[in-house]
Design brief:
Strands 3-4-5-2-6-1-7-8-9 form a 9-stranded mixed sheet, with helices on both faces. The protein has a 5-stranded antiparallel sheet with strand order 14-18-15-16-17. A two-stranded antiparallel ribbon has the order 10-13. The chain is 29% helix and 21% strand. α9 links the parallel β8 (195-199) and β9 (224-227). The chain has 2 domains: 12-244 and 253-273, Rossmann fold (3-Layer(aba) Sandwich), CATH 3.40.50.300; 365-500, CobW-like, C-terminal domain (Hypothetical Protein Yjia, Chain: A,domain 2, 2-Layer Sandwich), CATH 3.30.1220.10. It has 509 residues and is of the alpha/beta class. The longest helix has 17 residues, at 328-344. The termini are far apart. It has helices at residues 17-32, 47-56, 76-85, 110-118, 140-148, 150-153, 170-175, 185-191, 206-219, 235-238, 259-273, 328-344, 415-427, 488-500, and strands spanning 34-41, 63-68, 87-91, 94-97, 102-106, 128-132, 156-166, 195-199, 224-227, 288-289, 295-297, 303-305, 308-309, 402-409, 435-444, 450-457, 460-468, 477-484. Bound molecules: guanosine-5'-triphosphate (GTP). Guanosine-5'-triphosphate is lined by residues 41, 43-49, 135, 164, 199-200, 202-203, 229-231, 300, 438, 455, 457, 462.
Length: 509
């Protein structure tokens, strides 16, 4: 034997009989079950872009995709996915795409969608399942459920967790402190990752990419990281990883087995999908957006404010604390983070308190969408979002909470005016408390028969035109905003004022 060869402690052909039988049983079971990959990642990282890539790539699989959609507005993005892929007919929420793949958009109940998929008449006419979580979701509960639900487990096998990371924004996302007892979701998503797709290479400097990789490894040192643009990843790296094929020898942090924890996770999942996943600590966020009236052009042709500074700070470590009521899922994430702490040895950064991230959900701020048109201003000069009143955030928004606001109108919008409205909303932030993480919208644009899609991630946004509206399809504009310190009345008032000047009067929902 060459000196450099590492001797094997156990010869490969010496596997004891029992173990071999067990291994064969496992393999047999895997053959008869359908692999499931969970695609997670923070808001706007590129999860849906990855799903679209998978749905259109030449892999020969018939893939069923369960897409997450925000709160009340199921359908904004899936409407585009379906139109791009060709719609063949809907069945119980499931839509068959022309390439043999299927997709279904749900608000939060992934497991119910999974069951409905597995129970479809005609059997399992697909050989792979993808589940895309909400950008604010902790992927732990769904991973846990796939492991612990006996009924499901006999029909599917968890193949892996793919976490998509926005290379431009990961720094601020990871270092946003949360209220005591709540784990930052971006950190959890990394803690559970088997593979990280470090996306948006075209927008990030090499230095930022290296920093991002170091931060990712500080949380999850064993994860594989692949750099991508437009989430275009070699599918061999993310599908059929068999990451969980040897039970009891997980490459993930250990996952809870108790039913009650799965239920707690379900609650958390629903809460997240409803758009009010967590509360955050005061003063959170390192995002900086200088006030500017000049739009710059991002490399992709997107609009962004010229004064935006991304990836401005680098924290050197995370401080894990475990608490008495720690769920094992939270503890698992904490363990991953704590391991990073140990290796980093301290330093200044956000406080992380992972002890009870899955305990009682905070009050849903989504209810804030109940703000009424009565608060709408009457003059065009008030289209702008008002600054925060003296003394900080108004009382109807709890400080630092993440929430969702939905906007809607029936009449077509003027595209240029709409963009000006978005410019203002995202860029003119001086003295306003709102921090908008994400916007998505399906637009009905005046003078166009095509659907338009608004996509915004922090300050960067684009509006792209897509397929034509189908005959009989209700043309309307729907927008969702997710962010922190959102003041529904101010946002709704701004929207109402924008609509007031659109032809056909205004309509506010
Ligand atoms: N420039 C650039 N834009 C990208 C890249 N990947 C995705 N995007 C854009 O980023 C925006 C968000 O992408 P999505 O795939 O919708 O992100 P997501 O993670 O599904 O977002 P949520 O569902 O809101 O959490 C879209 O406008 C994409 O076109 C990339 O590599 N480069």
């Amino acid at each position: 034997m060459d000196d450099e060869d590492i001797p094997l402690a156990v010869e490969l052909n010496e596997t004891p009989g029992d173990e071999r039988e067990q291994g064969e049983d496992d393999k047999q079971q895997e053959k008869t079950t359908v692999p499931v990959t969970i695609v997670t990642g923070f808001l706007g990282a590129g999860k849906t872009t990855l799903v679209k890539h998978i749905l259109t790539a030449d892999h020969g699989y018939r893939i069923a995709v369960i897409l997450n959609e925000y709160g009340e507005d199921v359908g904004i993005e899936s409407s585009f996915v379906q139109s791009e892929q060709g719609l063949q007919g809907a069945d119980g929420g499931w839509v068959e795409l022309t390439n043999g793949c299927m997709c279904c958009a749900v608000k939060s109940d992934f497991l119910q969608a999974l069951e409905s998929l597995l129970d479809r008449p005609g059997g399992r006419a697909f050989d792979y399942i993808l589940i895309e979580t909400s950008g604010l979701a902790n992927p732990g509960p769904i991973a846990t459920a796939l492991w612990t639900d006996a009924e499901l487990e006999s029909r599917v096998n968890l193949d892996g967790v793919v976490t998509v990371v926005d290379a431009v924004n990961i720094d601020r996302q990871l270092h946003e402190p949360r209220q005591q007892g709540v784990v930052n979701e971006a950190q959890l998503q990394l803690a559970y990752a088997d593979i990280v797709v470090l996306n948006k290479l075209d927008l990030a400097e090499e230095e930022a990419l290296v920093r991002a990789e170091a931060d990712i490894r500080a949380i999850n040192s064993s994860v594989t990281i692949v750099r991508t643009q437009r989430s275009t990843v070699d599918l061999g790296l993310i599908l059929n990883r068999n990451g969980y094929s040897h039970k009891g020898d997980l490459c993930l942090p250990p996952i809870a087995e108790a039913d009650d924890e799965a239920e707690a996770g379900e609650a958390a999942q629903g809460r997240n999908a409803a758009g009010a996943a967590s509360t955050t600590g005061a003063g959170a966020g390192t995002a900086t957006s200088e006030r500017t009236s000049t739009a710059g052009e991002a490399p992709s042709g997107r609009r962004r404010s010229t004064g935006v500074s991304c990836c401005s700070s680098r924290a050197h470590s995370f401080h894990g604390k475990s608490g008495p009521a720690a769920s094992s899922i939270a503890a698992a994430a904490a363990a991953a983070v704590a391991a990073a702490n140990a290796s980093n040895g301290g330093g200044e950064s956000a406080e992380l308190t992972p002890s009870d991230s899955l305990t009682a959900a905070p009050p849903l701020v989504a209810a804030a969408v109940a703000a009424t048109a009565a608060s709408a201003p009457s003059s065009a000069s008030q289209v702008m979002l008002a600054p925060a009143p003296e003394g900080g955030v108004p009382d109807h928004v709890h400080d630092s909470q993440v929430s969702t606001i939905s906007l809607h109108c029936e009449q077509p919008v003027d595209l240029d005016r709409f963009k000006s409205w978005v410019d203002h909303l995202l860029w003119d932030r001086e003295s306003r408390p709102e921090e908008i993480y994400r916007m998505k919208g399906l637009l009905s644009v005046a003078g166009s028969d095509k659907k338009h899609m608004l996509q915004a991630v922090y300050e960067l946004y684009e509006v792209v035109s897509g397929p034509e509206w189908q005959p009989g399809e209700a043309r309307a504009t729907r927008i969702v905003l997710i962010g922190r310190n959102l003041r529904p009345s101010a946002v709704k008032a701004s929207w109402a004022s924008f609509l007031e000047h659109e032809e056909g009067g205004k309509e506010l929902h």
